[in-house]
Amino acid sequence: MYFFLFCIVTLVLMWFITHLHNIYNHLKEFPAPPIVPVLGHVFDYVDPKINHGGVIRQYIGPRKPSLATANRDFLQFLCRHSKYIGKAKYYRYLKPWLGEGLLTSDGHQWLSRRKALTSSFTQSGVLRNFVGVFEEKSDQLIKEINDLSSDKANVHLIMKRFTLDVFCETAMRVSLSSLANSADSNYAISIESVCEVIQNRMTSFMKNFDFFFQFSSDCTREKKNLAVIDGMLHKIIKAKHQERRQIGNAKERKDMLDLMMEVDIEGKTLSSSELRAHVNSFTFAGYDTTSSAMSLVLYEIAENPSIQEKLLEEQMQIFSGKLNNASVTYEILHKMAYLDMVIKETLRLHTIVPCIGKRATKDLQYGNLPELY
After folding, report:
1. Rounded to an integer, what distance in angstroms lies between the CA atom of residue 108 and that of residue 110?
2. pTM over 0.85
3. Domains of the chain and CATH, by start
4. pLDDT (tens digit, 0 to 9) for every residue of the chain, 373 residues total?
5. Cα dihedral sign for 14, 20, 21, 23?
6. Family per UniProt (predicted)?
7. Shortest CA distance to 160 belongs to which of 198, 189, 201?
8. Is the dihedral of CA 171, 173, 177, 179 positive or negative?
9. Which is nearest to 170 in space by CA: 111, 127, 224?
10. Cys bridge to 291: 160, 208, 296, 297, which one at CB 3.0-4.6 A?
11. What is the DSSP string of 72-90?
């Protein structure tokens, strides 16, 4: 019995080592920083564009070697061969929550859904309907910041709750109020917890493997919080379907979920599970990235008093000096040119999503190098 188990383990290890060696041979033409045995470059995240011409070989522990790049020519090469480029395998960590949504799907499925959803959300008047929500939630945000007892605060945490409140109101017409009642919002707490689990899986060697992850406390925590998220969305989608049966498409102000229910992909509307996947995908994509961007904008404004003064001057000019009772409209937002420049400059200085992972689905030829996989 023990001999049989020993043989199985030995064969698995031999296959794993051979597999890694084959990939190494494919990538050996690319330069790499000094490597630590077994651990690889886990302690050495090098900026690839500084010392290695923009493309380097990278090892993070005993996993598959990969390429890290910030090289424009190499990125253009990948874009030209997008047909053979899929999502990195670590995107599977998102699937228990996001299902087969835009962030996790590939190929024709991703393309058809992206086209349908994009055309639906970019139609005239969609954002115009949400300006009132933006203003209402922004007033709550200002009150929350004014009520802070200390001159220092975790603005990012506040912004995450604010962003989630805005998203839920515009996407599903659900008043979450997690900003004002953070301890009572099970949905917000569950989303934060699931995001933590995903981050833990990405930074843990053992939890990288589904077999070991299923025995961890993080797996139990993920299942518990996903039940809360799915339960809430199930009730909302069920209520939306009932509302549509009663009034059809006659609703004047449509939220994101209404628009998703009208989407036609190859002659079919989205099922309840597909709706949940896309709502969760939009939540994940906008929740942390938007709050990070807004936090960094506030940081840069606080660090640059002269910029603050110019922003205030612009607001005073737009609202004729009457800021206390000012009401924002869609047209007024387009007049805030200097604020728009401040936001864009912040995004230039700070990368909100520093890297993304891609995977080649077939051998590709890059320059004079041999085929790489």
Report:
1. 5
2. no
3. 18-88+359-373 (no CATH), 107-303 (1.10.630.10)
4. 677 777 887 887 787 677 666 666 667 777 777 665 555 555 555 454 445 556 777 766 556 677 888 778 888 888 888 888 888 888 899 999 999 888 888 877 888 888 878 776 666 567 788 898 999 999 999 988 888 877 777 888 899 999 999 999 888 888 888 887 765 678 989 999 999 999 899 878 788 888 889 999 999 999 999 999 999 999 999 998 888 888 766 666 778 888 888 887 777 888 888 889 989 998 888 788 899 999 999 999 999 999 999 999 999 999 988 887 788 889 999 999 999 999 999 999 998 887 788 888 888 887 755 444 3
5. positive
6. Belongs to the cytochrome P450 family.
7. 189
8. positive
9. 127
10. 160
11. HHHHHHHHHTGGGEEE-GG
Tokens of 370: 């041999």
Compute the distance between CA of residue 13 and CA of residue 125 in angstroms, rounded to an integer.
58
Residue carrying structure tokens 């003064």: 309
195/310 Cα distance (integer angstroms): 37
Q: In terms of Cα–Cα distance, which of 196, 221, 194, 218 is closest to 206?
A: 218
204: Cα within 13 Å, side-chain hemisphere: 16
> What stretches of the chain show up as alpha helix (H) in DSSP?
2-27, 48-51, 72-80, 95-98, 107-121, 131-146, 155-172, 186-203, 210-213, 217-247, 256-262, 272-303, 305-318, 330-333, 337-349
Cβ atoms of 172 and 241 within 8 Å: the answer is: no
Give the CA dihedral 228, 233, 236, 239, nearest 10 degrees: -100
Can you read off the two tokens belonging to residue 182? Answer: 């953070």
What are 65's two structure tokens?
Answer: 């070697």
**314, 283, 288, 284: which is closest to 301 by C-alpha?**
314
Q: What are phi and psi for residue 43, nearest 5 degrees?
A: -100, 5
| Rounded distance between C-alpha atoms, residue 233 and residue 275, angstroms | 9
Read off the tokens for 233: 């969305």
